[in-house]
């Protein structure tokens, strides 16, 4: 959804380390079928792989990694609530922001 100039500056995929946790990041993880396998293959050795695009929240343990989609705190679209994911001690938790 960003302008072309900004998209050109941003990597399609990124791995970051925060407090000893390796997190793989990608915006669009592609079709639902085979998504977990694609994400695990794209981000080996990551404890958490986070993707977005669908706005549908997900917190799933897949093999030795967590696969998460935080949903959206602002535009829930097809999701039932505004959400985000908080990770403490390596454990992701889906948090609903709606009352």
Seen as an oligomer or otherwise, the chain set is: single chain
CATH homologous superfamily annotation = Metallo-dependent phosphatases
Number of helices: 2
Widest β-sheet, arrangement of strands: 1-2-3-5-4
Output the radius of gyration: 14 Å
CATH class bucket: Alpha Beta
According to CATH, the fold-level topology is Purple Acid Phosphatase, chain A, domain 2
What's the N-to-C terminus distance?
A: 28 Å
Count of DSSP E strands? Answer: 7
Instruction: Provide the low-confidence segments as ranges.
Output: none
> CATH architecture, please?
4-Layer Sandwich
Beta-strand content: 35-45%
Assign the structural class, choosing from mainly alpha, mainly beta, alpha/beta, alpha+beta, or little secondary structure: mainly beta
Shape: globular
Order of helices and strands: HEEHEEEEE
SSE topology:
Elements: H1 4-9, E1 13-18, E2 21-26, H2 35-42, E3 48-51, E4 58-62, E5 65-69, E6 83-88, E7 91-96
Parallel strand pairs: 2-3, 3-5
Antiparallel strand pairs: 1-2, 4-5, 6-7
Walk me through what this model shows.
This protein is mainly β. It has a single domain (about 5-95), classed as Purple Acid Phosphatase, chain A, domain 2 (4-Layer Sandwich), CATH 3.60.21. It is about 15% helix and about 40% strand. The protein has 2 helices and 7 strands, in the order H-E-E-H-E-E-E-E-E. A 5-stranded mixed β-sheet has the order 1-2-3-5-4, covered by helices on one side. Strand 2, helix 2 (about 35-40) and strand 3 (about 50) form a beta-alpha-beta unit.
């Amino acid at each position: 959804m960003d302008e072309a100039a900004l998209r050109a500056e941003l990597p399609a995929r990124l791995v970051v380390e925060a407090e000893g946790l390796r997190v793989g990041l990608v915006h669009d993880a592609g079709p639902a079928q085979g998504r977990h396998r694609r994400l695990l293959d794209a981000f080996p050795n990551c404890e958490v792989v986070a993707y977005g695009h669908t706005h549908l929240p997900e917190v799933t343990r897949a093999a030795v990694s967590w696969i998460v989609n935080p949903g959206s705190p602002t535009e829930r679209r097809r999701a039932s609530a505004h959400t985000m994911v908080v990770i403490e001690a390596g454990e992701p938790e889906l948090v609903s922001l709606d009352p």
